[in-house]
Amino acid sequence: MMPVLFACIHAPGNLPLAVECARGFSPYIEENPPDTVIFDVRGLDALYGPPEMLAGEIERRIGVQASIAIAANPDAALHAGIGFFDRLRGVTVIAPGREAEVLAPLSVNLLGMTGMSGETAELLDLWGVRTFGELAKLPPLGVAARLGDEGVHLQRLACGESCRQIRPIVDPLQFEEEMELDDPVESIEALAFILSRLLNEVCARLAGRALATNELRLRLVLENAPDHTVTLRLPVPMIDVRAFLKMLQLDLSGRPPVAAVLKVHLRAEPVKPRRTQQGLFVPTSPEPEKLELTVARLRNLVGDGHVGTPELQDTHRPDSFVMRSFAPRGASAVAEAPVEKNARLCLRRFRPPRYAQVIVVNHQPVRVVSPSVSGRVVMAKGPWRTSGDWWRNGADEESAWNRDEWDVALESGALYRLFQDAAQGRWFIEGSYD
Amino acid sequence: MGAVVLQLRSDLLSRFDVPFEVRKRPDISQIPTGIQVVDQLIEGGIPRGTITEICGKESTGRTSLVFALLGQATRRGECCAWIDTSGAFDPASAAEAGVDLDRVLWVNCGGNAQHALKSTDLLIQGGGFGLVVLDMADVDDATAHRIPLASWFRLRHAAERTGAALVAVERQINARSCSALQIEMRTKQPMWIGRLLRGIVSLAESRKHYRTRVAEMRAVR
Fold it and tell me: Does the residue A198 lie in any domain?
């Protein structure tokens, strides 16, 4: 069985250098601020020889004054690394089983960095216990009776018998790729090949960690022009290279870069993939991946801001809503909706409201004239005055509305909603009842 | 003996919803409009996997009927799409008619009928939508007639394949033989109460399998 070994670098004032050096030997590195790192070096004997040779290689690579220690457990390596810093040659290799003997001369104050409380430190001082060796020699039952669990733990540390695992530094996950181009690329078709390659690499790395992405950021460095950025925000996490490529192509064809591309940078935001199980008795809904691609195609066709789900605003302002992206929530089992006797009368809006000339007799509209709707008014009901936002000032002042609404029936049989803007005195047709 | 049976029935009734009847299974081959007279007229609802045309002039209740249908579909948990050729969709009216707006994808084509047809095709081919409404109610007759029959056939085949109900709202019948159900709306009279427009009384005429039937529909505020 491969012996477990841990190395410690104690380099006062050079922690980043120590971390960088440790990265050259192991991916499992524990930082112990302010000056120390511990890392797992098991199996490196095949590469560097016995632990003494490995310690020498670490000392050579770090290049600054540092104390190197190698031991069979992380705490023994840590205490040796810090405790023997003042030695002429800063290398300490502790053979397995000799930890207590080697660590014996170290001061018990070192245990302060591994959890010794101030009260215990004072007590040990009163007892005249100054070194690891003296603490190790105390009868274990007596230590347990007087100092409790903490005392037992400290005595094990003093004997070099700790058996904890190191707490490795977890690097933030970065899923990004970039490519500098030899020659500037102008066409989107040529760019698609590069994007496909970058997407494949990023998605393969995401898949390797069982992740997906809900946000893709593409940055194109352009020739003599500011960077062009594309951000795809997805309602559900996805990892479909073809769909991503198509969405990026659609975005770039709708909003192409203004100059040739010199460099392509792609970044994916990693998130956990979506895991859902459809019920047997729920209505089908569009597959999110397919839907996103369809919506991207629709946006490309009819324009951004014209596709989505309307969300009504909490105001009485006519036709007040915001368009947000379509992301239907999961459905429950099919339910029977109630049956009504009558339908609800609905309005078909004219956007923007159509300007009309309205002849008014005795405060009643009698004729409407406009390029699309004209005729004699056979019935008019109103006016219904609505107003709002008149209390706003400054830039929001324009949002105020104040108008008189009329419901009118023309001789053709059509029913319209008219309104007269109180500020301008002009008439508009807001829509037809249908 | 009779008393025992009655006792047994009353005991079971308190524990089960319908112990002595077959539970009514929702008909998934049709989407009901939720308006009693219209559902009776069209024998249950709008058929899935084909085209239904609802046509008529302005203020004949076409939109009110389709909003009722949309309300029923969304309340049953289905995803729906509204392809709005002229941008006339009023979200406030739809919400009042019982439509769950979260389940509606609205595509505003800004007056371009070609874009509307292409959007409908994309959405039906994509699948997953229970009801797709192609609103061409404000498209003039000349433009509507220019839509080739092949386009309607393509849409019908896509609807058949995905099982979506495609409802076209128009001024006149355009899809002709491609549509399985045609409903023509006519205004009978508006309803006024005091200083209020109360609603519209319309006549809905359905044509299905060479049979024509008429019913009176009311759309009220």
Answer: yes
Q: How far apart are CA A236 and CA A287, in angstroms?
A: 10
Strands (E), B97-195: 104-108, 131-135, 165-170, 179-193
* Secondary structure letter of residue A107 according to DSSP: B
Residues A71 and A33 in one domain: yes
A317-376 pLDDT, tens digit per residue, is 999 999 998 888 766 655 667 888 999 999 999 999 999 999 999 999 999 999 989 999
Instruction: Tell me which residue of A253, A229, A242 sits closest to A292, measured CA to CA.
Output: A242
Say if CB B100 and CB B122 are below 8 A apart: no
Assess whether A33 and A122 both reside in one domain: yes
Number of C-alpha atoms within 13 angstroms, CB side, residue A89?
A: 9
- Amino acid, res. B220: V
Write out the DSSP string of A374-429. Answer: EEEEEEEEEEEEEEE-TT--GGGGGG-EEEEEEEEEETTS-EEEEEEETTT--EEE
3-state secondary structure string across A252-270:
HHHCCCCCCEEEEEEEEEE
Taking CB atoms and an 8 Å limit, are A334 and B91 in contact across chains? Answer: no
Beta strands in B159-210 (DSSP E): 165-170, 179-193, 196-208
Amino acid at B212: T
Which amino acid is located at A39 in the chain?
Answer: F
Same domain, A146 and A233: no
- Do A206 and A146 lie in one domain? The reply is no
Q: Do A343 and B88 touch (CB under 8 A)?
A: no
Q: Is A341 on the interface with B (CB under 8 A)?
A: yes
Looking at the fold, whether A53 and A152 belong to one and the same domain comes out as yes
Could you report the per-residue pLDDT of B25-47, keeping only the tens digit for each?
556 689 999 999 999 999 889 99
The SS3 of residue A326 is: coil
Residue with tokens 């192509």: A249
A220, A254, A271 — which closes off a domain? A271
Tokens of B66: 């389709």
Residues A105 and A24 in one domain: yes
Residues of chain A with Cβ-Cβ distance to B76 below 8 Å are 283, 334-337
**Cα(A322)–Cα(A299) distance, rounded to whole angstroms?**
16
Residue A191 within any structural domain of the chain: yes
User: Residue A72 in contact with residue A6, Cβ under 8 Å?
Assistant: yes
Residues A107 and A152 in one domain: yes
In order of their start, the domains of chain B are: 26-185 (3.40.50.300)
Question: pLDDT of A203-216, one tens digit each?
Answer: 998 998 889 999 99
Residues of A in contact with B105 (CB under 8 A): 295, 307-309, 326
- Could you tell me the residue range of the domain that residue A190 belongs to? 176-271
Q: Identify the CATH number of the domain in which residue A111 sits.
A: 3.30.70
Cα separation, B216 vs B214, in Å, equals: 7
